Amino acid sequence: MNSARAVFLDTASLDLGDLDLQPLRQAFGELVLHPASAPDEIAGRLREANVAISNKAPISAETLAQCPDLRLILVTATGTNNVDLAAARERGIAVANCQGYGTASVAQHAILLLLALATRLPDYQAAVRAGRWQQSTQFCLLDFPIVELEGKTLGLLGHGELGGAVARLAEAFGMRVLLGQLPGRPPRADRLALDELLPQVDAISLHCPLTEQTRGM
């Protein structure tokens, strides 16, 4: 790909000033960088490109029809729902994504949100800011009952890299983890249908790809 022309559509979505683009510059003959690309700008920017690089910028079938030289789409994220995969396949354009790059961060964030809900952290933060704690006669603030995660059950929809990492953290808190059957996937003995899963869990966390079957879940 040393002679290929690559166009990065949305560098600002990734670059906080510490993004090293040197490997990309070495990989391609020409690297064109755009901090962001509006949907109506994308086709024009990719028209003479051999490689498209996108984090979240959408690449539609209509765009692909206007890019005869495009051979590869690199998605700098795990999900590829911003690319019309069927149209890319029809035109022989390969699509690659990044797997496992943010597993620990995503799992940590999911547990952070679960803890915030269980401990009513937003409610207590608001109460402290309003002076409720300082006004308490016994220096206690017990307005919002909390829930301990130990002994509770977490349902997971999606048990790949991300779901597996969340499951391990949840189990470290003493939670039981149950796995749900994803729509459109072959049934598995270790997965529960949604109508079986939901009555048994105290919380549910989604870690599945966005597809037509999972949209709206």
Task: Characterise this structure.
It is a single chain. The chain is α/β, with parallel strands linked by helices and 217 residues long. The protein folds into two domains: 5-96, NAD(P)-binding Rossmann-like Domain (Rossmann fold); 103-206, NAD(P)-binding Rossmann-like Domain (Rossmann fold), CATH 3.40.50.720. It is built from nine helices and eight strands. It has helices at 22-27, 39-46, 61-65, 85-90, 103-118, 121-129, 132-135, 161-172, 194-197; strands spanning 5-8, 30-33, 51-54, 72-75, 94-96, 153-157, 176-179, 203-206. The protein has a five-stranded parallel β-sheet. Strands 7-6-8 form a three-stranded parallel β-sheet, covered by helices on one side. The chain is globular, with a radius of gyration of 23 Å. The two termini are 40 Å apart. The model has no long low-confidence stretch (mean pLDDT 93).
What is the C-level CATH assignment of the largest domain? Alpha Beta
Count the domains.
2
Please, how many helices? Answer: 9
Q: Give me the CATH architecture of the largest domain, please.
A: 3-Layer(aba) Sandwich
Helix content: 25-40%
Shape verdict: globular
Q: Give a quick account of the main beta sheet: strands, pairing sense, barrel closure.
A: 5 strands, parallel
The CATH superfamily of the largest domain is NAD(P)-binding Rossmann-like Domain
Order of helices and strands: EHEHEHEHEHHHEHEHE
Average pLDDT for all residues:
93
Number of strands: 8
CATH topology label of the largest domain: Rossmann fold
Strand content: 5-15%
In what order do the strands lie side by side in the largest sheet? 2-1-3-4-5
Distance between the termini: 40 Å
Decide which structural class fits the backbone.
Answer: alpha/beta
